[in-house]
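Form 7-S
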Amino acid sequence: MLRDENMEKTRGPHFIYSLPLIYGPASSRRLGLSLGINPSPLTCSFSCVYCECGEKAFYAPAPEKVALDIGWDVILKPLSNALNTYRKLDAITFSGTGEPTLNSQLPVMIKNVKDIAGAPVVIFTNASLIYRDDVKETLSLADKVVAKLNASTQEIFLNINRPVNKGLSINEIIEGLTEFRRNFSSGLSIEVLLVDLAGAKGNSDEKEICGIAEALRQIEPESVQIHTIARFPFENFVYPVSKEKLEEARMIFEGILGAGRIHVYYSGGLKYSIFRSTLLNLLMEKNPEDYERILTGSCRCPFTDRQLNPMNFCYCSICGSIFHMRAATIRMLEDRYVLLCPRCMKEG
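Output:
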């Protein structure tokens, strides 16, 4: 694995935590050994109830609304270092802790990565912007696109994905994916994540699964992956479905789409994502009392008075204070992208 370059000592007893722009490599059944690029750290167009990264620092409906664009010049150095270390990679992925298509520099990044990496480029997207022609063209530059589709009805879409663009419809996404597959890409895979929600309607009942399968029949993807959450979710009312439910979904999908391209993944049990576990481990090491308070929900943000929990807190990279992610600002500090609290932002 790459050396953990996200923790560096800074003023006082605290650590500076920088947002990783390159991560991995990691091995998977789908992609083999892949190295990841994080072009939109903690910046997303959805606020998915199941997100393993938890609360984001910035939400935007489109690239034009993003406060901070990360350019190729920032990616190049850490990527080159990783490529010099790991020369036999099966893929380079764009994903990370945010939505890649929110970065307006993504076309340049894809082209340049193809020039220097010598490995296929794979983009993971929530498909929130697939209705836009410029985004379709950008995604077509990749060798493979893996897009999410967790709903077939507007009610379930809003319950699960919670788009920043309140006017966005699930039909726009389905139509955009259909057009993309037809006109731009033969390498389109769809991920379907099934969850149960307490107090709201999830996407695991037979009617919704059949609706998703019908949408997939229209899209005609190369392959479909069905899974459920394997990491602790953003919201505590979200629950994984059983392995038996995933198999039931497979049978429905195969009945509509045919066998051969439907794959089920089930890990069993939940754990924190790498991003969240890194923050929690840092807090446990430096301030065990606050760590326990975060776990028990007895800690509040000093700036917003909002309750803090393992899925919404963050660390200020300068002063080391813990606070709510929505109060954070992403800035570049000594060639690293970091999270700053309101006080350190004000002090400059």
